Amino acid sequence: MNQTQFQRAAGISAGLAARWFPHIDAAMKEYGITAPLDQAMFIAQMGHESTRFTRLVENLNYAAENLVPTFGSHRITPQQAAALGRTATQPANQKAIANLVYGGEWGKEHLGNQVAGDARSAAWFYSSRGCLLHSGDVERVTLLINGGRNGLDKRRALFNLAKSVLV
User: Fold this and answer.
1) Which of 8, 80, 120, 166 is 20 to 30 A from 72 (CA-CA)?
2) 63: β partners
3) Who's near 156: CB < 8 A, 6+ residues apart?
4) Is 131 strand, coil or helix?
5) Percent of the chain, pLDDT > 70?
6) Could you give the CA distance from residue 121 to residue 155 in angstroms, rounded to a whole number?
7) Average confidence (pLDDT) over 132-139
8) Cβ contacts of residue 120 below 8 Å, gap of 6+?
9) Res. 66: pLDDT tops 70
10) What is the DSSP string of 76-104?
11) Which pLDDT tens digit goes with each residue over 148-159?
């Protein structure tokens, strides 16, 4: 796959393709996402998770009372949630929330995050969760990545676009 194919497969501008392609290409090669159907799925899933490659960070604007139920007390304590989550008097500290709930030993083991702010972990996560065993199965891969069917129709449309270019 070259940069132009990536641009067309992702349905993004030339500027976004130039910014993302070197990183996406290197990560896919490093983690064995090399078959065209797998590349199409990875691009579709990444495209959905990053709002069509326009966001590098996840929206973690959680209310304090929703952090523990969402991430579990093994990843964030009620005291940490109160200090970092959004309240009537404070905005959510999204960066601190991300580094806490996606970092540390849990983040290394489950997400491949090696340092705070690690963005390379997406390809590791995709590969380590067994997504390569389900080539072409958008629903199964979405469940492996998201834990649910969040955005399934959009992910399917993005996959069909990427597949039309790469496969």
Assistant:
1) 120
2) 86
3) 44, 138
4) helix
5) 92
6) 20
7) 97
8) 23, 27, 112
9) yes
10) --HHHHHHHSB-SSS---HHHHHHHHS-H
11) 898 999 999 999
pLDDT at 105: 76
Sign of the Cα torsion 103, 111, 24, 46 reads: negative
- Show the DSSP H helices in the chain as ranges: 3-10, 14-30, 36-49, 64-71, 78-84, 94-101, 104-111, 121-128, 138-146, 152-166
Token pair belonging to 25: 């290409």
The two structure tokens encoding residue 49: 């998770």
Residues 51 and 29: their CA atoms lie apart, in Å, by 23
- Asked whether the CA dihedral 152, 155, 160, 161 is positive or negative, the reply is positive
Q: How many CB atoms lie within 10 A of CB 128?
A: 16
- Say how far apart CA 91 and CA 100 lie, in whole Å: 17
Worst-scoring range by mean pLDDT, 54-58, 86-90, 98-102, 135-139?
54-58
Dihedral sign from CA coordinates of 81, 85, 88, 90 = positive
Residue linked to tokens 């983040």: 107
What's the rounded mean pLDDT across residues 125-139? 94
Amino acid in position 13: S
